[in-house]
Amino acid sequence: MSQGDPGSNLFSLRGKVAIVTGSSRGLGQAICVAYARSGASVVGVSSSSSAQTKEQVEAAGGQFLWVQADLTTTSPIPAIVEATLKGFGRIDILVNNAGTIRRVDMVDFTEKDWDEVMDLNLKTVFFLSQAVAKQFLKQKTGGKILHIASMLSFQGGIRVASYTASKSGLAGLTKAMANEWAQHNIQVNAIAPGYMVTDNTAGLRADAERSRSILARIPAGRWGEATDLMGPAIFLASAASDYMSGALVPVDGGWLAR
């Protein structure tokens, strides 16, 4: 993206086109709505219906295009890019939000548990980012790539070997991409959400003892909501962050500061 004019709205996404993976619910849905409110057209990518997201985006005054895709493989990537260009003519923002987790004792972890998480959380993220970066270079417009990392980009976690590996890898990948692409006005950053109310944490929240121990460490005293990511996601997609690249931004209620 071009550098922001200090006299303009640095946080506006008007005229921009954003691809958001994992758009059907949770964090991805909230980011889609946030971008629509800021003026962007949104392409939501998910394996299950994003009809509810479409309704919310359109209620916010935005345009929404759904692309159904199974991101556990890289095969849908060309079609995602093609559909976006056909629908809106350009790409300005990519949010790699889709992800999965397996909670198993490490001594019992299977190759399937490993591969399914790594393929979605890291491999597809790399190759989708690569495809979108190629389009940015072709457009000569620059662009923004935002990864959704995790507290486990910084910490080891418990019973989540492949998830921790994938999110730690994503932290490194964010920096590596920034090193190569910042010179082309492509900013690559990541948000590291704390303990959020999502499908991935349903088991933790249902475990009263574990939930209490987690809340006891969060200075904010509550689990994060999907809406807590809206502001940071807009910031990292807008001209306000044009000189940020390779950063991991915790949105964690103070978890890491404890």
Question: Which helices and strands, and how do they pair?
Answer:
Elements: E1 17-21, H1 26-37, E2 41-46, H2 51-59, E3 64-68, H3 77-88, E4 93-96, H4 111-139, E5 143-148, H5 161-181, E6 186-193, H6 202-206, H7 208-217, H8 230-237, E7 248-251
Parallel strand pairs: 1-2, 1-4, 2-3, 4-5, 5-6, 6-7
Helix pairs in contact: 1-2, 1-8, 4-5
What count of structural domains? 1
Q: What Rg, in angstroms, do the CA atoms define? A: 18 Å
Amount of beta strand: 5-15%
Q: How do the helices and strands follow one another from N- to C-terminus? A: EHEHEHEHEHEHHHE
Q: Could you explain the architecture of this structure?
A:
This protein is an alpha/beta fold and 258 residues long. The protein has a single domain, classed as 3-Layer(aba) Sandwich (Rossmann fold), CATH 3.40.50.720. Helix content is 41%, strand content 15%. It has eight helices and seven strands. The chain has helices at 26-37, 51-59, 77-88, 111-139, 161-181, 202-206, 208-217, 230-237, and strands at residues 17-21, 41-46, 64-68, 93-96, 143-148, 186-193, 248-251. It has a seven-stranded parallel sheet with strand order 3-2-1-4-5-6-7, sandwiched between helices. Helix 1 crosses helix 8 (230-237) and helix 4 (111-139) runs parallel beside helix 5 (161-181). The longest helix is centred in the middle third of the chain and has 29 residues, at 111-139. It is globular and about 50 Å long.
